[in-house]
Design brief:
15 strands; disordered N terminus; alpha+beta; 364 residues; Umud Fragment, subunit A; 9 helices
Length: 364
Amino acid sequence: MTGRSSSGGPFRRAVSLRGMTTRTPLRRGTVRHVSAAALVLAAGLLGAGAAGAQTPPADPAVAQILRGDIWVVAGTPTADRFGAFDVPSAGMLPSIKEGDVVITDRQRAATVTRGDVVVFLPTPAQRAKCGTGADERFIKRVVAVGGDRVDVAAGQVLVNGAEFVVAGATAPAYTVASVVVPAGQVYVLGDNRGSSCDSHSWASPGVPIAQIDGRAEAIAFPRARVGFVTPAGAVTPFDVSGAPTRARAEYLVTLTRSASPAYIASGALRKCAKKASCARSLTARHRAAGRAAAGLAGKMTAPARALGAECGAAPAKALRAELQRLARGARRGRVTRAKSLALSRNIDSAIAKARTKVGACWTA
């Protein structure tokens, strides 16, 4: 995934998701499926029900992930089942916002029903209509399942003749003549119906269930947005102030997001260093990579402070020190191709080491 714009250009109407991978700039572009080492945030579980009582999630594994009791680490059952995706656009407002990180459950993909929010890979024709990349996932709400009849008229979404109501969803300005959803497929709409490329836009409106990656279970980031996604539309908030590993998880997510400029700069430097024709630009790219390293070190200072004496504090401190050292070195001396390749490699390595060592805190 490359680029910074989240909703402009050809992606304006598409609500798509990015798997949170090591080298993922978290705004716009080609999207990779979430890796086994995807980041999932820690959070507490104080429910905000109608009477203020605790409302535990349906699955205790989700609660464990949100609290940080378990972590999505490569090779674990948690990583096989759950994913974390970044939302780069506004088609699911107000329930899910741009910049939210959503936790998905792959085991629930085959059993989704009306009201569920799902992450899925659109078909080639659907991607072409929305103007999105080949690996880009979408997030939408299931409005109807196989055999249901959908009509959209007079600002209402009707399923089998009854209005389908989602709290906060905008009224559609478009109309849809009666459509029967094929078996094995679902009909999906964004809650922000005036700014979503979804089933109403597509010649073949159904999303095959086989294309669904998982059901959205919770919003895990940012802190003010933590809560459970509900079929009714409203997100049930949860207090995260008492979660002991919240700071560690937030550090990892912030690192993943903030590292994007450093990764981009180091990648551009490495590409230039390998080409003789790029010799005139080498020094400028070298200095730019150094500035990016310094910028990342500065951005990670505040999240690192919150770690205190936790397991992640030492690698966080080591990352800052290494990035600062690399930044100082990038400002000095004559720039050579070998020096530039080393700088690029060392920036990437420092970030990867920090992520690995902080992640290891959950498996020690």
